[in-house]
Amino acid sequence: MSEAFTTSTARNIFYGGTLFFLLVFLALTYQTEQSIPSRDRREMLADAKVVAGKKIWETNNCIGCHTLLGEGAYFAPELGNVVKRLGSEEAVKAFIKSRPPEGVPGRRSMPQFNFTDQQLDEIAAFLKYVSEINSAKWPPNIQG
Amino acid sequence: MQYKSQAVAKPYFVAAIALFVAQILFGLIMGLQYVWGDFLFPYIPFNVARMVHTNALIVWLLMGFMGATYYLIPEEAETELVSPKLALAMFWIFLVAAGLTVVGYLTVPYARLAAMTGNDLLPTMGREFLEQPTITKLGIVVVALAFLFNVTLTVLKGRKTAINTVLLIGLWGLAVLFLFSFVNPHNVVRDKFYWWWVVHLWVEGVWELVLGSILAFVLIKVTGVDREVIEKWLYVIITLTLVTGILGTGHHYYWIGTPEYWQLIGSIFSALEPIPFFAMTLFAFNMVNKRRREHPNKAATLWVLGTGVMAFLGAGVWGFLHTLSPVNYYTHGTQITAAHGHMAFYGAYVMVNLALISYAMPILRGRAANSNKSQVAEMWGFWLMTVSIVFITLFLTAAGILQVWLQRVSDNPLPFMVAQEQVSLFYWMREWTGVIFLIGLLVYIWSFFIPGEEKAA
Could you give the number of structural domains in chain A? Predict the structure, then answer.
């Protein structure tokens, strides 16, 4: 690099450039926070079951096998649209309940979590809520 | 070793490599579960193996960064560490906390671990990579603060160079951004939005500053090129990193409920993210070509050049592959992402850690470089691991392309599990390549036990 371009010039460009793009990022964050209420279905969080369902989702590490809106592990199906894929919240609950505790020989199988009926309602309510978020038409089809 | 207190780096390096082994073993378990679904079920379900695999990786890379910092800060600042005792105490606290957390993952169902550790008081668990119990997270904050206090005061009382300044900015950024792991809104869109402030702004932001400064430090040492030249390169690289990487966060905001203008911003800026990695490749090769000395540690030079190439391929090229939103629409959340993750983490962060360890460890053990025999073994480790990760990445990419086609593009999209069975051949090939990777790692470790020549450091 040429002599005219000194280390202190490079340093100043670093500080200036970083600060500039950080501020742009923060401004976009503000804009995002302002505009997402029309997309994120936050009114559904008024239902205590949805909030409780998110906690069950977290404390059983569902993301350790599944994706949710495409984020997570790639070992088991996408769940952002699972209520639509299986057809109803009832079908989702039935699936979770039906898992054999010892697994399926040679195959991947979801663990049996022994959830109570109330917990199943909560998880299903949470997954229903996620399925209603406006995710810009992702996933491409119902298979997730 | 120029400063006595640099010795505190050694236990960090040893523990980092031990955790590296654990990471790979659990990776092999997971890889096998992909094709042998009930392997170890229900004792070690996939999600548990994955937590150990990813968390061990994160912790060992952080251990490596801390060790690297303790090693290079005294030399750069030309003064002893403020408190080597604090550094050692933090090492044990960090190691024990990490160990207990892994024991918790493996012995107790996750929901019970959450209950036992008081997750109800401040729920932070159960989000990808941030699965640690809240008390572990608090422990990490304490360790990070003590660490930053120690090294920052050392730099303040000593010489300030571009290398230690950039390193400190990176480490402070790392610690501050980790605080977002405590942000967990009920609203899934906002949860995901801020989750990326930890995950993306770490690996495609501040960690690159740490990477750049460690690379610059080792390059000065092994090539003898003027500091002035190397530091100028460092500033240029990290400018490119943050100018592209901060708004590049947008490539995670395509499909999670955030506004659709992120598709444009994310595509443009993340498409530029390979540039700083390419600059790193040029940097490493240019400096080595212009070297003014023949350092006896050839293995360290190999790791440095390897970092330059593999970080560009893994983070740069494989990142670009699926970062444009029209492409990502089809590839999001598939094995393509896994392919990129494996080569990017190895190429950038594993390799830079091993580069610094390769350079520093012989000196910490009282010699300028290891014996020729030891270096040859280390280089075998380098090639076995590096070639393995290239093939792991290629096999996962193949699996990913097929998965996208079968599940998302073809006229009759298949259900997830049906598509998975169709691509199992590639999972088998990935698993066997993983075994070679493990062999490479064992060869690498064996190289430490080959006696070194008695050359004074």
Answer: 2
CA of A108 to nearest chain B CA: how many angstroms apart? 4
pLDDT one-digit tens code per residue, B38-49: 999 999 999 999
Let me know whether A31 and A82 are in one domain.
no
H helix count then E strand count, chain B: 19, 0
pLDDT per residue as tens digits for the range A118-140: 999 999 999 999 999 999 999 99
- For the record, the structure tokens of B148 come out as 């930053």
Distance separating alpha carbons of residues B434 and B25, to the nearest angstrom: 9
Give the mean model confidence (pLDDT) for residues A100-119. 97
For the stretch A25-73, pLDDT in tens is: 999 999 999 999 999 999 999 999 999 999 999 999 999 999 999 999 9
Q: B229 near B270, Cβ under 8 Å?
A: no
Size of chain A, expressed as the number of residues it contains = 144
**ipTM of predicted assembly, 2 dp:** 0.97
Residues of the domain holding A7: 1-38
Dihedral angle over CA of B307, B313, B314, B318, nearest 10:
170
Per-residue pLDDT at B121: 97
Q: Can you give the CATH number for the domain in which A55 is found?
A: 1.10.760.10
Same structural domain, A34 and A45: no
Nearest to B235 among A10, A61, A101 (CB): A10
Amino acid letter at B287?
Answer: M
- Tell me the two tokens of residue B32: 């096998």
Q: Where are the alpha helices (DSSP H) in A1-144?
A: 7-35, 48-59, 82-86, 89-97, 117-132
Q: Are A128 and A91 in the same domain?
A: yes
Amino acid at position B305, single letter = L
Query: Residue B454 — pLDDT band, cuts 50, 70, 90?
Result: low
CB atoms within 10 A of CB B115: 13
CB B453 within 8 A of CB B374: no
Mutate to test the interface with B, among A6, A49, A63, A74 (most CBs of B within 10 A): A74
For B449, other C-beta atoms within 10 Å of its C-beta total: 8
Hey, are the CB atoms on B330 and A140 less than 8 Å from each other?
yes
Q: Which of B50, B330, B416 sits opposite A64 (nearest CB)?
A: B50
Q: Residues in chain B, how many?
A: 457
Cite the DSSP H helix spans in B312-350. 318-320, 325-331, 335-344
Residues A1, B232: C-beta atoms closer than 8 Å = yes
**Residue A78 DSSP symbol:** B
Residues A78 and A55 placed together within one structural domain of the fold: yes
Same domain, A15 and A31: yes
CA angle, B39 then A63 then B326, to 5°: 110
Which token pair is B104? 């918790």
- Contact between B188 and A129 using a beta-carbon 8 Å cutoff: yes
Instruction: Answer whether B242 sits within 8 Å of A73, measured CB to CB.
Output: no
Q: Which two tokens stand for residue B122?
A: 């401040």
- With beta carbons under 8 A apart, name residues in chain B contacting A32: 193, 253, 258-259, 262
Pair (A117, A142) in one structural domain: yes
Cβ proximity of A75 and B33 under 8 Å = yes
> What tens digit of pLDDT does each residue of B409-428 get?
999 999 999 999 999 999 99
Q: Are residues A73 and A132 in the same domain?
A: yes
Domains detected in chain B:
4-447 (1.20.210.10)
